[in-house]
């Protein structure tokens, strides 16, 4: 099933993993989305919704996790919009197999379940976005745009619980951080500059790249550069892990 989307006037294309431009005015190829959900009415509804969003193209639907893995390997989607609770192979295992088998394909979870076990399992498996089915069209588009551009996007309630879990000492698959004197975390010992620490603090506070750029009066490109440096220096995978790292370093309240 295909539901090609038109482009919104005045929007800019996004550079994808290979440097190609997609999802915007003048882009030759839209972001290719595979929808995975075991409920037919949900699949069809998502296809209709995504088909109306600028810069997205639904290139197929999967009825369970095994089908999602197969199509992710053969249909070359950019993003899989993944339900978690499906028969035969659930969304967690499907995400893990997709990420391991085809790292270029990114997974955004869209589910009715947002309990801690589901959230942490999805992040461990490699999901780059996590939304509940209460998300509106603008939230889904924002998540797709962020994840395709290499960022992560979490539902605000999920991000809060992620931080709370770290406050309680939960482990969610984030690499250990460097400790300073007295066993306290020390971001400077990971080679972070003062500006990178400031950007990290605002990421943990939930600010978007545009909001961080405005606050520090720097360009969006500069913010992205800082984030790339943060990911490399801290050995974190994405924005969600940076939030957890910031909390462990004492940079998040």
Short note summarizing the structure:
The protein is 44% helix and 14% strand. It has helices at 40-51, 65-74, 91-101, 116-125, 137-148, 156-167, 194-204, 209-216, 220-234, 239-248; strands spanning 3-4, 14-15, 21-22, 31-36, 56-62, 79-82, 106-111, 129-132, 153-154.
Shape: globular
The end-to-end span amounts to 46 Å
H/E element sequence: EEEEHEHEHEHEHEHHHHH
Mean pLDDT, as a whole number?
79
Helical run tally: 10
Task: Name the poorly predicted regions.
Answer: 1-15, 17-26, 173-185
What is the CATH third-level topology name of the largest domain?
A: Rossmann fold
By CATH reckoning, the class of the largest domain would read Alpha Beta
Number of structurally distinct domains: 2
Roughly how many Å is the radius of gyration?
A: 18 Å
Major pleated sheet: 7 strands, mixed
Side-by-side strand order of the widest sheet: 1-5-4-6-7-8-9
The CATH fourth-level homologous superfamily of the largest domain: Response regulator
Strand portion, in percent? 5-15%
- Helix/strand/pairing category: alpha/beta
């Amino acid at each position: 099933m295909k539901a090609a989307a038109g482009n919104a006037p005045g929007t800019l294309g996004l550079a994808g993993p290979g440097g190609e431009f997609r999802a915007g005015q003048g882009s030759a190829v839209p972001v290719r989305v595979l929808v995975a959900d075991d409920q037919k009415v949900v699949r069809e509804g998502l296809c209709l919704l995504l088909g109306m969003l600028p810069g997205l193209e639904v290139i197929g639907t999967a009825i369970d996790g095994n089908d999602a893995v197969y199509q992710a390997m053969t249909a070359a989607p950019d993003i899989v919009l993944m339900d978690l609770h499906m028969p035969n192979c659930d969304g967690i295992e499907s995400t893990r197999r997709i990420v391991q088998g085809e790292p270029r394909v990114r997974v955004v979870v869209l589910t009715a379940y947002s309990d801690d076990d589901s959230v942490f399992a999805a992040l461990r498996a490699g999901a780059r976005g996590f939304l509940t089915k209460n998300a509106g069209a603008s939230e889904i588009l924002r998540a797709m745009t962020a994840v395709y551009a290499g960022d992560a996007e979490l539902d605000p309630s999920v991000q809060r619980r992620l931080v709370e879990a770290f406050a309680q000492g939960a482990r969610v698959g984030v690499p250990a951080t460097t400790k300073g004197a007295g066993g306290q975390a020390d971001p400077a010992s990971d080679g972070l500059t003062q500006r990178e620490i400031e950007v990290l603090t605002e990421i943990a506070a939930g600010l978007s790249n545009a909001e961080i750029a405005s606050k520090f009066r720097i360009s969006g490109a500069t913010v992205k550069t800082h984030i790339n440096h943060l990911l490399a220096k801290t050995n974190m995978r994405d924005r969600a892990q940076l939030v957890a790292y910031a909390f462990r370093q004492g940079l998040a309240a």
